[in-house]
Design goal:
Blueprint lengths: L20 E3 L2 E6 L2 E6 L4 E4 L1 H8 L8 H8 L3 E3 L4 H13 L2 H4 L3 E5 L3 E2 L11 E2 L4 H4 L3 H13 L4 E7 L7 H18 L2 E7 L7 H9 L2 E6 L4 H7 L7 H16 L4 E4 L10 H10 L4 E2 L8 H5 L8 H20 L5 E2 H11 L19 E4 L4 E3 L2 H8 L6 E4 L5 H5 L2 H10 L20 H8 L10 H19 L1 H11 L2
Parallel strand pairs: 6-9, 6-15, 7-8, 9-10, 10-11, 11-12, 13-14
Antiparallel strand pairs: 1-5, 2-3, 3-4, 15-16, 16-17
Helix pairs in contact: 6-7, 8-10, 13-19, 14-20, 19-20
The chain binds iron/sulfur cluster.
Length: 490
């Protein structure tokens, strides 16, 4: 017998055209140059319209490459076959495996005070000189929050300190880290710490503590000096100078990989994507997260959010992504993180666990927020909404409520259930659903309910455009396709 057989050799007898086939669940969307099919595990195929019509009318030639592709990606099976259904179930379980871990990211808002006064601030901060007694987390509140952290079944626990500017309450950070490490001697989880800081107040004593306890630094860098200082005012107008000096000093003590930076896109950033990326490169960063502004906190109060819409942000994102691809083409390794996370959902059976792009939503079940005053929120954005007067995502109070009461509160369960994209109008029929998320907080901020109206939702418009842009780029040339496959596995 010949070593290599034609594909028909491996097909069962029933694979002849017209034999009994069963479609497996899938969604589709007609694009300009083909039909996109996706299924519940994110497998995708773009096929010519004529082949698609033959597929759904059960007249597709079993010798055609489309037939083989759709079969291998579980868009149909032959009656009597069991393994395709088992494989599909296995892939779905793998994709949703983070649900079993439950909450892994625990955000501690150790103070609301900040010495910056960024107009887009999502946090509704208090002044640096505001009352520490009123706006700082107390030690007993912090210890109650730690009780909840260690009640989580997740094998991976990340504690992230936020503010305001968390370094204004560094003593409580120090106590939480030392106590968490002590408790972890018995709990034996993978414990990690992050301080999200503007670095203006960093000093060697704090960095030494970070080094001793493997604490990672996440900072904000919005772009070149003029843009950063415009976006991030502080007394002395030297936010940029301080963050650049802070990054260098932190790297000296924590190592190159001990510091990362995030940027926020404001109206002033639009049109400057290349400059912002070059600024990141000039400081030795090899990645950037081109994030849109969120409709929370001071961003809404100061109308920063309303100054630009999804289309203008998409122009910015697309210009940035094209530039990043070009850099890679020229031999410079650089990654756009938002795209990379979406690619992981598109091209692997894994999920990056990014809270905004999870369904069921990641609020509360992937990340939870312990506020300085003891309130527990489903997400950072839920806390921001509370600062604006809406307690919709308030799960409970550390002083009075138990772990069970907090994590089964109607505020959490209702928002998860009602926003679930698998049963949300429009999302249920959307070919992009496997790559998208629910984000009940974003929709609540914009529409006053967990679901929103997807036809008017900037979240929906933005992601539809991103997904289709990624698919188009992947088909445009081999270099981009290979680069995107690399990013999906980062
Ligand atoms: S939000 Fe929009 S893009 Fe996302 S799944 Fe729903 S309909 Fe599709």
């Amino acid at each position: 017998m010949a070593k290599f057989q034609p594909i028909s050799f491996y097909k069962p007898e029933s694979s002849r055209p017209g034999e009994a086939r069963e479609l497996l669940p899938f969604r589709f969307k007609r694009l300009a140059d083909g039909v996109l099919l996706t299924n519940m595990v994110g497998e995708q195929a773009i096929v010519p319209p004529t082949e698609f019509d033959r597929f759904v009318s059960d007249t597709l030639d079993s010798a055609s490459p489309v037939f083989t592709e759709l079969r291998s990606k579980h868009f149909f099976y032959f009656k009597g076959e069991i393994s395709p259904i088992h494989l599909l179930a296995l892939k779905l379980r793998t994709r949703k495996r983070r649900l079993a871990d439950f909450t892994g990211l625990h955000l501690f808002v150790v103070t609301l005070r900040c010495e910056h006064s960024c107009p887009y601030c999502q946090v509704s901060r208090a002044n640096e000189t505001g009352s520490a007694d009123r706006f700082d987390m107390k030690l007993d509140t912090a210890m109650k929050a730690l009780d909840l952290v260690f009640r989580s079944p997740s094998p991976n626990l990340k504690i992230e300190f936020q503010g305001g500017e968390p370094l204004l309450n560094f003593e409580v950070i120090r106590s939480i880290v030392i106590e968490a490490e002590k408790r972890n001697e018995l709990a034996k989880r993978n414990l990690a710490f992050v301080i999200a800081t503007n670095l203006a107040l960093i000093n060697d004593e704090i960095l030494k503590f970070c080094s001793d306890h493997s604490i990672f630094i996440s900072t904000s860098l919005d772009g070149p000096r003029d843009l950063h200082n415009l976006n991030r005012p502080r007394p002395g107008g030297d936010s940029y100078e301080r963050v650049v000096a802070g990054i260098q000093r932190a790297r000296t003590i924590l190592g190159e990989s001990g510091v990362s930076a995030l940027m926020t896109t404001t109206q002033a950033s639009l049109g400057r994507a290349r400059e912002i990326i070059d600024e990141y490169r000039s400081h030795g960063f090899t990645e950037i997260f081109l994030r849109p502004l969120s409709p929370y906190g001071f961003a809404i109060k100061t109308k920063s959010f309303l100054k630009y819409n999804a289309d203008r942000w998409l122009e910015f994102y697309n210009a940035g992504l094209d530039y990043v691809i070009e850099l890679n083409r020229q031999g410079t390794r650089f990654t756009e993180i938002y795209t990379a996370m979406i690619l992981k959902k598109m091209l692997t059976n894994d999920d990056p666990g990014y809270v905004d792009l999870m369904t069921p939503a990641g609020t509360g079940i992937a990340a939870v927020v312990y506020n300085y005053d003891g309130n527990v929120f489903a997400s950072d954005e839920g806390r921001m909404l509370a600062e604006m007067g809406s307690d919709t995502f308030l799960l409970g109070d550390l002083k009075t409520d138990s772990y069970e009461e907090i994590f089964t509160s109607p505020a959490l369960l209702d928002s998860l259930e009602e926003s679930f994209s698998g049963s949300a109008p429009m999302c249920t029929d959307c070919a992009h659903e496997p790559y998208c998320g629910s984000d009940p907080v974003w929709h609540y901020a914009m529409f006053g309910n967990y679901l929103g109206r997807k036809t008017e939702s900037e979240f929906c418009a933005r992601h539809t455009s991103i997904f289709e842009g990624i698919l188009t780029r992947m088909r445009s040339d081999n270099f981009t396709r290979n680069l995107f496959h690399d990013w999906a596995h980062l």
